[in-house]
């Protein structure tokens, strides 16, 4: 089934009781996932991660481009259980989609740039800006990596253990509500596994209804931009350096 993110709010009870409680093989295509620009204030698709993440059995994913979307559709088709696939309003990126399609391992992130001094974890529409920010930082000698967290639930716990064990700053970026979102899931993971000395940060949308406006303007307003990500990561790296100095 396919439905706008904002309309899925009305079907929450059906998702819980008629799909997830029975662990049915249902793929929910979540259209307009994220900011929607001209569709208007009431159609901002920013709540679905927060209200779906707490439901048992469901997988939540979002592709970085149309090629990965094909792979995630195949993954959902083969998966035994509920699968929510988010995708944004607007045009695709124009990447090649002529190759074969294979299912992806459930809960497996993708390393796009190797994290050495810091890591940016993001997914979907914010991948390009994260890559640009990381490139800018590398030109300044800061070897920040980018992780495609295409599975919002379940998390790639193996990779997260590796990142937290490195004791490098970890920044999550999401075009969605921060409260109960992907960044919250990463913080919950850190707390659950005792990574209390980690330096973590989150960029996303605040606990408020987002007004009507162009996607670009709204993203810039809330720091969801190349410069916003770059600035936040620099702040975290500075704090991390001071923290290490205090421990020596």
List key phrases describing it.
single chain; 248 residues; alpha/beta; Rossmann fold; 2 domains; five-stranded mixed beta sheet; 9 helices; 19% strand; globular; THDP-binding; magnesium; thiamine biosynthesis; EC 2.2.1.7
General description of the model:
The mean pLDDT is 95. This protein is α/β, with parallel strands linked by helices. The chain contains nine helices and ten strands. The protein has a five-stranded mixed sheet. The protein is globular, with a radius of gyration of 18 Å. It folds into two domains: 85 residues, 3-Layer(aba) Sandwich (Rossmann fold); 138 residues, Rossmann fold (3-Layer(aba) Sandwich). Homodimer. Keywords: Isoprene biosynthesis, Magnesium, Metal-binding, Thiamine biosynthesis, Thiamine pyrophosphate, Transferase. It holds the Pfam family Transket_pyr. This is 1-deoxy-D-xylulose-5-phosphate synthase. It comes from Listeria fleischmannii subsp. fleischmannii.
